[in-house]
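Exercise 4. Each item below gives a protein and its sequence. For each, produce the structure-token representation.

Item: Membrane fusion protein (Desulfocucumis palustris).
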Amino acid sequence: MHFLKKKLGKMSWKKLLAGALILGLIVSVVAINLVRNKNTAGIPVKTAKAEIKHIQDNVFATGRVRLVEKQEFYSYEETTVKEITVNPGDPVRKGQVLGLLDAGELDDQFSEAKANYAVRQSELEDALNPRQEEVDKLKADYKRAGADYKNSQKNYERTKQLFDQGAVSAQEMEAAEIDLTAKETAYVNAGASLKIKESGPTGPELASLKAQLEQARNRMELAQREFDRTTLTAEMDGVVIAVEVAEGDHVDPGTRLITIGNTDKVEVTAGVSEADSGRLKTGQKVKVTAAALPDREYTGVLQSVSPGALVEAGNQGSQIEVPVIVRITGDSEGLRTGYTVDLTITTVDRDKALVVPYEAVVEKDGQHKVFVVEKGVARERKVETGLDTELYTEIKSGLKDGDTVIVSPGNIEDGARVSASNNVPPAGGDK
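Answer:
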């Protein structure tokens, strides 16, 4: 019995030792496999494909609709509205009278200016082209003045002889001298008038007559403009946009009275933020939408970009904006002047561009880089970037279509083994 127990004890110890060895071997194999599997799986990362897509970049702004062609009527002096013949929405034709203002003294001033101009015009015409009857009259006047002068000379000489003899008084002698001087002056003036009439005015005289005529013309034209302003006449075909006065209203200078315009031609004025203004160029396409017309979309083109910027006050404080004008190129039906509209200005529009999610691009050592997954290993690659948008970045060089890149690589190092935990959609969206 004792021998049997001893033999059984030796056999149990050997089995226990063998079992322990087998268990240790199993644990080692499992551990090795776990480590191997871990190394094979790598660091979990999100990935995306570099793909060629149609890309577009836009600048957004808010603007206001205004007429391209319009005419506004204002009062130029204190007056009274006599008559208004149109209402908002009425069609008007060029030359149509839309209303009248009280002319006051402007009518009389215009008539006086016209009369003065006619006199000056007649004076210049007579000086340049004298009528024969006028010349004949001046000749007769000159001849008569000469005869009067000779008679006065004879009378003077006769009176002087009598004065020297004491036959006449000093007063009579003085009267004879005065008459001789007067007759001589009349004779000289008559000769000068005849000469001017026959030969025409001299340079200074002609210049003076022309200057007087031009001055009279300016006064007449000014008086006519002031008088014409009292009649509100349309200078274009269009529609009445606004009537801001009524018959009988007393208005001050500068009061706007009526506005007409061509509603088929409208444009949008807006301000673009300073940060976005550098991406603007005339000719860029614009999409225009209005809250008042939710089912309509209008097309336009960026017509002008101001060379300067303005400080605009808003609800969130002042900001610097660059004024722009957008011309509506298609149908503008429904866009009313004064409407607030939203603008989408397309600054870049490319049919084909290689893009990746913007989170895939990192900056290291002053260069743009991405991590490309090649056979489960992250490979750092330098790239040249182009357009940046809210969702993606254009790659000009360094990648090719179909390359798998790591999104938000974080602390990933070149050569690290990685495993894609999930793929994100391509940056450009579905093909």
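Check: Confidence is low (pLDDT under 50) at residues 426-431.
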